Amino acid sequence: MALVNNEAVEVKKLNYGRVILTLENCILPPNKHSPTPSMLDGLDRETEQDLRILGCDLIQTSGFLLRLPQVAMATGQVLFQRFYYSKSFVKHGMEVVAMACITLASKIEEAPRRIRDIINVFHHIKQLRTGNLPFSSGLRQPPAVLLSIWG
């Protein structure tokens, strides 16, 4: 029984076969949370968390510039997080993995982008982040939101 508009309503339990989804039955088992492969390779927890956040920001920014739907960006971030729960940041470069995740996510969510476009966007973001901007004084400046993220 559940309350809806202060009335008791009977809730039917639906049978979805043998699949049971609860918070106790999460997809990532607790033994994968710590120590992660990066921690086993000597990376401290704070640095790993910063790299995870930076990678997700990179995927979000590149997805925005590629005009991908939000669900594709979220899929890319999930792929990124799951990859680094089984592989190490020390052995696999964050930017290359983020690029692969956004490529795969765009195809999974049926909003594919050319690999050349993805490479160009990541190169542009890297230029913004390092300060090697190809803008001259007469050209339009990059959006402030990008500079605040990677500045």
UniProtKB/TrEMBL annotation:
Keywords: Cyclin. Residues 32-121 form the Cyclin N-terminal domain. The keyword ATP-binding does not apply. Pfam families: Cyclin_N. The keyword ATP-binding does not apply. It comes from the Eukaryota. This is Cyclin-L1-like.
